[in-house]
Design a protein that fits this description.
five-stranded mixed β-sheet; single chain; 1 helix; Tick-borne Encephalitis virus Glycoprotein, domain 1; alpha+beta
Length: 158
C-alpha cells in the first residue's frame, strides 16, 4: 500500500516510476565513478622551472624543466640517509645520496649525486647539476621512510 492506494504488482515487476529513479541513481553513480577514475589518471604537468645558476627545490617524485634548455630533471628517490640527526651529536655529518633522472633530446640518464664533494656534481651534455642540500633534516625519532624529501639543486650551463 502506497499513500493510501493499494498497488498490486507481479513478482519481479518494478513500477515505472521506481525504475526511473533507480536508473537515474545508477547513471549518476556510474558517472561519478568514471569521473573520479579519469581525474586520478590525468597527468598534470606541474614541473618546477629551474633557472640556470639559481638554487631550486625539487620534491621527491617531481620534475624540473631547465629554463632555456630541453633538459628535464626528475628527483626519483633518496638511496640512503646517513646524515647526523639534528637532535644528536655526531663525529661525522653523514650523507644522503639521491637518484635523479635527466631527460634531454630523446635520451634519459639515471645519475646518483651525493652531498659530499666531488660526488655532488654531474655533467650531462652542456649542463652541470650540483646537489647542494636535502630537507627535512634527519631526526633520531623519525625514520627516513616517513620523510617528504626535497632536494636543493643548482643547474649551470657549460
Amino acid at each position: 500500500m502506497r499513500g493510501g492506494i493499494l498497488t498490486i504488482t507481479r513478482p519481479g515487476f518494478t513500477p515505472r516510476s521506481r525504475r526511473k529513479a533507480v536508473s537515474l541513481t545508477r547513471v549518476a553513480a556510474i558517472a561519478a565513478t568514471t569521473l573520479a577514475i579519469a581525474a586520478s589518471c590525468a597527468t598534470v604537468d606541474t614541473a618546477v622551472v629551474a633557472e640556470p645558476g639559481a638554487t631550486f627545490s625539487l620534491p621527491v617524485g617531481a620534475t624540473a624543466a631547465v629554463s632555456g634548455n630541453s633538459a628535464r630533471i626528475t628527483f626519483n628517490r633518496v638511496t640512503s640517509d646517513s646524515r647526523c640527526p639534528i637532535d644528536v651529536v655526531c663525529v661525522w655529518a653523514g650523507d644522503a645520496p639521491i637518484e635523479l633522472t635527466i631527460a634531454r633530446e630523446g635520451s634519459t640518464e639515471a645519475r646518483t649525486l651525493s652531498l659530499i664533494a666531488p660526488k655532488n656534481e654531474v655533467v650531462v651534455g652542456d649542463l652541470r647539476i650540483r646537489f647542494v642540500g636535502l630537507t627535512p633534516a634527519a631526526k633520531q625519532s623519525e625514520p627516513p621512510a616517513t620523510r617528504a624529501y626535497v632536494a636543493h639543486l643548482v643547474v649551470t650551463p657549460l
